[in-house]
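Workshop exercise sheet. Pairs work together: one partner reads the sequence aloud, the other fills in the structure field after running the prediction. Swap roles for the next sheet.
Pair: D.N. / O.F.
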Amino acid sequence: MAKTNRIVEDNIVNSIIGVGSEFKGEFKINGLLRIDGKFQGTIDTNGKVLIGQSGDAITDIKARLVVVGGKVSGNIYATERIILLSTGEVKGNIIAPSLVMEEGVKFEGNCLINKKLEENSD
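Structure field:
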């Protein structure tokens, strides 16, 4: 039951920074944050962060799940998984128990796959 609720929550957008929008500051949220515009600051959530293809973020991200289809300059820390789509660009370090990287990704930084994070998240 809890896993079903998490799947539903992952698909409900809690907050969005749309195309043409710019936001600077600290984002602390529950649920999904989608960035299609420009963001500068920090992101802290127990949910999902999605950087859309037109998204441009200068940020450190702490989340359960992070999907990057746009540009991220900063470190990404995920307790479950990081997914880098073929259109994604990341300049920074990534730490997660699981990483999916499509062909064509631009990545500059260090990567640490830490399975202990996954074990401690339950």
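Discussion prompt: The mean pLDDT is 87. What would you look at next?
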